[in-house]
Design goal:
By secondary structure, the protein is an alpha/beta fold. The chain is 37% helix and 23% strand. It has seven helices and eight strands. Helix 5 packs across helix 6.
């Protein structure tokens, strides 16, 4: 387990939260954060670190396999975590899922006692994985994940049902089976995303409170 970084005379705890698309990672993040002071917790989303696609047309961008590890700028993500551990602020890029490219905007992020990194592929990268003090995998039934993905992509990302279902069959499902599901083996804690997950959440909160108190 990595040595905790010292930030302003306190310990930085880095938590990685992974799981398939639509598994409920965001819900778990909020459940954990609800018991912690807002000023002590920071969030980094893998979704902000999709690679720039300035050299591609919009049509070419829509064909990118966003569920493959090579679509993520892990080098930048790792560097940003290193900067935070050294007490430096970072500027997370902002990614548009409508344009399939970074917007040019950034999110200024300060070092906190607890940094939560969430994303479907974060446990697939060895260097990033080694930076996590706690590794969590959120598990959900595949049908439930598909339903959530349909609702989200149609409501928030301008997709239609045919496009979402086609992407699910051609990329989401095979990439989940090839990369995401196997990464569960690296998790310290596996949280079922159902009504029985309260015990797991309480365990995570207890560990966090013990480390930062």
């Amino acid at each position: 387990m990595p040595i905790f970084a010292v930030i302003n005379n306190s310990i930085m705890l880095i938590i990685g939260i992974a799981g398939g698309t639509g598994s409920g990672k965001t819900t778990v993040v909020h459940q954990i954060m609800n018991e912690l002071p807002e000023t002590e917790v920071g969030i980094i989303s893998q979704d902000h670190y999709y690679k720039q696609t300035n050299d591609l047309s919009l049509d070419e961008r829509t064909k990118i396999n966003f569920d493959h590890p090579r679509s993520i700028d892990f080098e930048l993500l790792v560097q940003h975590l290193k900067d935070l551990k050294e007490g430096k602020a970072i500027d997370q890029p902002v990614y548009s899922f409508v344009k399939h490219n970074r917007t040019g905007d950034t999110i200024h992020t300060l070092p906190r006692k607890v940094m939560i990194v969430e994303g479907i592929l974060i446990l697939t990268n060895p260097e990033l994985r080694d930076m996590f003090d706690i590794k969590i995998f959120v598990h959900a039934d595949s049908d439930e994940r598909l339903i959530r993905r349909l609702k989200r992509d149609i409501a928030e990302r301008g997709r239609d049902m045919e496009e979402v279902l086609n992407r699910y069959q051609t990329t989401l499902k095979p990439m989940h089976e090839q990369f995401i599901e196997p990464s569960k083996a690296h998790a310290d804690i596996i949280i079922p995303n159902d009504k029985y997950n309260t015990v797991a959440i309480d365990v995570v909160r207890a560990v966090i409170n013990q480390r930062i108190s």
